[in-house]
Amino acid sequence: MDCSATLPRHMLVSLAGADRAGAREGILDAARELEQFLKDVERRAFRMAEIALRNADDALDVVQEAMIQLAQSYGTRPPAEWKPLFYRILQNRIHDWQRRRRTRSKFIAWWTGGVADDDDEGVDPIENAASSDAGPPRRLENAEAMAALNTALSALPARQQQAFLLRTFEGLDVAETAAAMGCSEGSVKTHYFRALQALREQLGEHWP
Amino acid sequence: MNPNRNEPAEPTALERASRELLLASAEALDGRTRSRLTQARHAALAEIGRESARPFRVPGRWLPAGALAAAAVLAVAVWVARPVPSTPLAEAVTAEDAEMLASTEGPELYADDPDFYEWAGSDAALAPAAEGSAG
Predict the structure, then answer these.
(1) What sign for the dihedral angle of Cα B99, B101, B105, B106?
(2) Residue A125, Cα to own-chain centre: how many angstroms?
(3) With contacts defined as CB-CB under 8 Å, which chain B residues touch A193?
(4) For the complex shown, is ipTM > 0.85?
């Protein structure tokens, strides 16, 4: 598949300025493969970030940062390594974002004399579930099931949420999930198992 | 799911339904979000082009320190290599003094009025003053 038509102009200019034809070809190949990879994962990555952060704009920023860091640091690595690396970067960014948000909330609470504007506590998960009006009209049952799932996923502890989304949504195996989460395979299995239990309790046996 | 096994034999109904719904929600993103994701992807691809075109990489956090060190080295080099201050007046005075010291002739002012200087050096020039101070 020829992706050069969709590459940014300044990148093509820098490619044209490369001295060696081999190097130029290598850059172009890497760019094509990276573009294909990012195209493949970007929507799922966005949804994961949106569920974790409960905010679409924050999620877009986090996904963009993860994409750029992957290209900068690992763009020339074998494409087979990209997926766990990308999700590792994404999870770290989400974690940083949540930590900054908590710090900001604590400062605001201190500054305003205890009236906390905490995004993580006292939040109504239904109100903050991903908007269902984003896409084209869907069947009511699906919309309700999705809203319930969003609520249940948002209520999960961060590690359980990560394990569930990486395994079920992204389809990573246990080893890849462990690499993405920066933990052992045993921890992944434990987090995933607990996530499934919690979701069953939240959603009920007959969901959806 | 049994956590002690590497892979579940079959995804449960909850896993299957969750995956289908999440994939559907990812496919149904609105135009604005899709556009932002495309922009983000292009920004990332631009980085790989830029990184590869550079002959070497300098970590961004070292740039300010590097610039400061380079400025300090330049300032020291300019200070050490500066020319010694030398004004035209100083050079002229020095040359005139050297010429006067090297000359075997007396100062030219004697040639202007030799009688006056002869009188000034005689006792007659000193006499009125001595008389005045005595009287």
Answers:
(1) positive
(2) 19
(3) 1-3
(4) no
